[in-house]
Amino acid sequence: MAKAIGFSFKSFKIKVGRNRRALRGFLTRLKNKPPKGLDKLAEEIDKEVWREVDCLACANCCRTMTPTFTNDDIKRIADHFKQTPDQFKKKWLYKDRNGDWMNKQTPCQFLDLKTNYCSIYSIRPADCAGFPHLTKKKMVEYIHVHHQNIEYCPATYSMVSKMQEKLNATT
Length: 171
Prior knowledge:
mainly alpha; single chain; about 55% helix
């Protein structure tokens, strides 16, 4: 898929700056008092979001964040590079204060900065494969993730904005 024309990360950051507080407040209210059918609504909005958002036009997640690598991820990716898990960890990862394995650097070492393609896409970490976690079965359990991701991910921003519009229209 080619990069989407017309995406401007600078414009996105300005939009986020204007709406961050309201969207975070909305998410907090949603967590404290989730409406019936929230997960179903998230699934409906998810389809709309992915008709509008092209991750290859952005790749901000790979540029500014790091996934959590599970032991399975580490083994799978290390095998791909014909390394032991310890060699892979020593070269690319560090253990954070929570004991999670994270990239030593951002942008991600596997991101091609010119094309926004991931060089290990087919074996990428599970955290990357699930990002931005829009339609987890219990959305309420992932609101804290959306709270953070609205300022990094246009898909999350779009999802939360659309959800706010739809829920405000029904109340």
